[in-house]
From TrEMBL:
Protein's name in the database: Hydroxymethylglutaryl-CoA synthase
Entry similarity comment: Belongs to the thiolase-like superfamily. HMG-CoA synthase family.
MF GO annotations: hydroxymethylglutaryl-CoA synthase activity
Keyword NAD applies: no
InterPro entries linked to this entry: HMG-CoA_Synthase-like, HMG_CoA_synt_C_dom, HMG_CoA_synth_N, Thiolase-like
Organism: Haloferax profundi
GO BP term (any one): farnesyl diphosphate biosynthetic process, mevalonate pathway
Keywords: Acyltransferase, Isoprene biosynthesis, Transferase
Residue ranges occupied by any Hydroxymethylglutaryl-coenzyme A synthase C-terminal domain in the UniProt entry: 195-421
Domain Hydroxymethylglutaryl-coenzyme A synthase N-terminal: 3-175
Signal peptide limits: none
Keyword Acyltransferase: yes
């Protein structure tokens, strides 16, 4: 059977950068380590005045198409995942297609275009749609373009303000992929939750403590569901495990939960028994509360063990590097975690062909999804072609006063005139509104 997966990937970060420990924390009167050690964040990307989810998505897509030598005729569908959409009818994919048609001789009239919404998991759901479309034989030899693009803003003063970020990830989904093959097996954990939502509003309403609990519960359910079709997992089965990363500190909790689950009943639990005891079993406790308390105590001990710390440093930590420097990209979050891991592998000279990734996606509201990916022989060429470091290095640093201005620029309820901080060149830019209040774009040479 023909393999299907991610053939190529590109990113586009917002062109402005805010230093969290040195610029944001002092104004907030907070310890810089709250961000660096607590949240695991150092800097956040923000869009310039002329940037938004369309420009970032279109610029990432153009980078990908140009690098792979593609034309619109090669693309059979364009799926955009976002939770930052500004239109309740016209999908962002049509805007992005319109941008791309400004620079290519062909058009996308033949392409199926759509927009996915399920908080941060929508990017992975769009991968699923593209995968199923190709596997069903409906693609007529064409590839799919999946774009996850968001500007993750919170209200000023909200606890989530420090996790903000902006950027886009463009992925080409095709047969015989050059980067990773997606597994047929998937696992889900889903329930009706109100942990994070935007009921007819731009900025989210968040129950932070509840959101963490829901994230962990749905991830556990998704892993168990994945194992029901793929078989038991083991911590050593996967070279990397990229998680949805709203901020790296959240992944620390998910990774510990995953390691405990995967090591249960294995030689790892046996090896650790003399140090921290065996994992509590529910049948050994009279009440659920007693069992949960014992589990929490075990996990507190587990995270201090050398075996867990070594595994975390090897399998999880490399997935967090990009996120720690750009903030939360919502639908693109888990996909920059994958890129971060493979980028680290390339820099370390690791042989990754045939190695497995276990990808854990999550969207509030709430749903988690787990699937595996197999790294392909040509992965290194693809990863080395992505200009992550240069994009991050080229960002323009802003002051706290600048941050306040750019936050107001991208607040849909405010209309202010602010000079751009950078000069656009060779990219799509937002130019204003049309006669029906639609957003308009053009390509700047």
């Amino acid at each position: 059977m023909t393999s299907v997966g991610i053939d190529a990937i590109e990113i586009r970060t917002g062109k402005l950068v805010l230093d969290l420990p040195n610029t944001f924390a002092p104004v907030k009167g907070e310890d810089p380590e709250k961000y660096t050690k607590g949240l695991g964040l150092y800097t956040s990307s923000f869009p310039d005045v002329y940037e938004d989810i369309v420009t970032m998505g279109a610029n990432a897509a153009k980078q990908l198409m140009d690098r792979k030598g593609l034309t619109p005729a090669d693309i059979g569908r364009i799926d955009v995942a976002t939770e930052s959409a500004f239109d309740n009818s016209k999908p962002v994919s049509t805007y992005i297609a319109g941008c791309l048609e400004q620079v290519y001789d062909e058009d996308f009239r033949h392409a199926n275009k759509g927009e996915r919404k399920f908080a941060c998991i929508a990017g992975t759901q769009s991968l699923d749609d593209a995968y199923n479309w190709i596997k069903a034989g409906r693609n007529r030899g064409r590839a799919a373009l999946v774009i996850a693009t968001d500007t993750a803003l919170y209200e000023r003063g909200d606890p989530g303000e420090a996790t903000q970020g902006a950027g886009a990830v463009a992925m080409l989904i095709d047969e015989d992929p050059d980067l990773v093959e997606l597994s047929t097996e998937q696992g889900y954990g889903s329930m009706d939750e109100t942990d994070f939502l935007k009921p007819n509003q731009q900025f989210p309403s968040v129950d932070g403590k509840r959101s963490m609990q829901v994230y962990l519960a749905r991830m556990r359910e998704a892993l168990e569901d994945y194992e029901s079709v793929a078989g038991r997992t083991h911590p050593d089965d996967f070279e990397y495990i990229p998680f949805h990363t709203p901020f790296p500190g959240m992944v620390r909790k998910a990774a510990l939960l995953g390691f405990r689950h995967m090591s249960r009943g294995t030689e790892i639990e046996d090896d650790l028994a003399s140090e921290i005891g065996r994992q509590p079993r529910e049948d050994d406790f009279e009440t659920w509360d007693d069992y949960e308390e014992a589990i929490r105590a075990y996990m507190d001990d587990l995270k201090t063990t050398e075996q867990y710390r070594d595994w975390y440093a090897r399998v999880i930590e490399p997935t967090l590097d990009i996120s720690s420097r750009v903030g939360n990209w919502y639908t693109g979050s888990v996909h920059i975690a994958r890129l971060s891991a493979l980028k680290a592998a390339a820099e370390e000279g690791k042989e990754m062909t045939g190695k497995k990734l276990l990808v854990g996606s999550y969207g509030s509201g709430a749903q988690a999804e787990i699937h595996a990916e197999t790294v392909q022989e040509t992965w290194l060429d693809e990863i080395e072609a992505v200009d992550v470091d240069s994009q991050l290095a080229d960002r323009t640093e802003i002051s706290f006063d600048d941050y306040e201005l750019i936050h107001d620029v991208h607040n849909h309820e405010k209309e202010i005139e602010v000079e751009e901080f950078t000069q656009p060149e060779g990219e799509f830019v937002f130019t204003g509104w049309g006669r029906m209040n639609e957003r308009r774009y053009e390509y700047v040479e």
